[in-house]
Amino acid sequence: MADGPKRKLRPAQTIREKSETAKTEKPKKKSRRSVIYGSIKKPFQKLGKFLNQYKAFRIIAKVLRFIGRIIVPAYLRNSWKEIKLVTWPSRRETYRLTVAVIGFAIIIGAVVASLDYGLTRLFRIIILGH
Questions:
Q1: Residue 43, pLDDT above cutoff 60
Q2: Buried b (16+ CB within 10 A) or exposed e, 35-68
Q3: Does pTM surpass 0.90?
């Protein structure tokens, strides 16, 4: 064994200590560009830096953002954000799940059809006497 210095492990933070450090940390502010351009900011970053130097372009950007909020309802904007967060299944998983759903539907359909047929025969015998 090496006789080097031993490492000291820091004790784990308690919940109280975590909440204290969370209170003292400043919340992260969104940059102006990310608010203006939203999800399509990458192609426009350099252009945004250039245009942001001029006051007239900042005013135009605010007007366009306001018009965009009027034209595209909040429901559609929020739906688009949610769709980007979805983890889609692979092709193989999709195939397996589709086959499972179709098989389940066929089995349940057969059970319901047989119950319907059996109850129809039973009621005809009881009510009609056939």
A1: no
A2: ebbeeeeeeeeeebeeeeeeeeeeeebeeeeeee
A3: no
